[in-house]
């Protein structure tokens, strides 16, 4: 009887250890197969796709510029950045994924001539980048300068004429 009890005890210990091990192995296999299925479902599809063409804009000072970048999120996209290439050639990073608000739009309220230049949306992943750009032109910026300069020239001309007339008048009066 003691012998049977001992054999039963040893057998149940082995059985419990093998059950614990197989349960652990089952859990591990389940997690591993789940991860494998999830990872295999991630599709990079190549470099990101931008579905729209950004349009150039000509606005007046004080208007609002709105740029839209429709990035196809079916494929893996690591980042969306917005850049401004100013008319002097320098480039400024405007927005990243960490910036508050939607990464698909960029708005400039009360535009001024310094806002002119190229605006670019760049979507990228490990396989490459896709860029969509548009040019913002502020109308009247050059013409305001030209009008001011023209007014200055007219005033200068009138002033010279008046001065010439005064000098002629003064010399005639003095004689």
Brief overview:
By secondary structure, this protein is an alpha+beta fold.
Task: List its salient traits.
175 residues, 2 helices, two-stranded antiparallel ribbon, 42% helix, elongated, five-stranded mixed sheet
Folded structure, characterized:
There is one protein chain. The chain is built from two helices and seven strands. It is of the alpha+beta class. Strands 1-7-6-3-4 form a five-stranded mixed beta sheet. The model has no long low-confidence stretch (mean pLDDT 77).
Structural class designation: alpha+beta
> What is the N-to-C order of secondary-structure elements (H for helix, E for strand)?
HEEEEEEEH
**Tally of strands:** 7
Give the overall pLDDT as a whole number.
77
The whole-angstrom Rg is 37 Å
Give the CA-CA distance, first to last residue.
155 Å
Shape: elongated
Beta content comes to 25-35%
- Widest sheet: strand ordering: 1-7-6-3-4
Question: Mind sketching the topology for me?
Answer:
Blueprint (H helix, E strand, L loop, with lengths): L1 H40 L15 E4 L4 E4 L10 E8 L4 E5 L9 E4 L8 E9 L2 E12 L1 H34 L1
Parallel strand pairs: 1-7
Antiparallel strand pairs: 2-5, 3-4, 3-6, 6-7
